[in-house]
Task: structure prediction
Amino acid sequence: MIKAIIIDDEQLAIESLQWEIENFSQEVKVIESFTNPKDAISGINYLKPDLVFLDIEMPEIDGFQLLQLLDYKNFDLIITTAYNQYAIQAFKANAIDYLLKPIDPDDLTQAIEKIKNRQTSQTSTKNIETVLNNLVKDNLQKTKKIPLGLSNKIILVDYEDILYCKSDGSYTTIFMRNGDEHVVSKNIKHIEELLPDTVFLRIHKSYIVNLNEIKGLIKQGSGELILSNEKIIPISRSHRKNIFAALNIS
Result:
């Protein structure tokens, strides 16, 4: 039995899809549904479903941004959406199954059959996570927005407004160009995976910097960076070569 979660900001859409599943897909059992993205994130991380039906177009945060906030990603994904040419192209490019609303029973059956075949062939966790991460990064290039899960809310920030990130164990502080600081309960590796590597670079076990915000370089020792706000950030010896190459410094 495939354990599934449905996420859609419209309760009627959830009930309609659940009815379709119960009547046309006996192999799938809906174990939970969510209209609130923040609740859905906690639910996926806790319940660890085999399959998620995700409405990609939701207020507050969309489906792409919800995927960015997940810790658990070892599930198959079926996107539910109204027609959007850009989104459909992204799904196809990343081999993501999708259902156009209103959902047709035959399309649902076909999508679930693909999931069953993929699970039978034992697609690895790594491959599934790679597909989801690629989908998210494709959308990030379009929106330039990343979601940050704070203690009591989720905010969206433009990644170009981030100066640098600093880790403190399992927490990371995001320092913004306007002086704001956001503390998130994610380690720096998770944040590094969210940010485009064309703009951001890990320069130390505790620091990621926005390459566009580098003002200067101190070459003494392993080196230090001077950012646009005059903040000085250390470079570790293991990352010195990468940062020098990114700045075209010999």
The chain has a mean pLDDT of 88. The chain is about 35% helix and 30% strand.
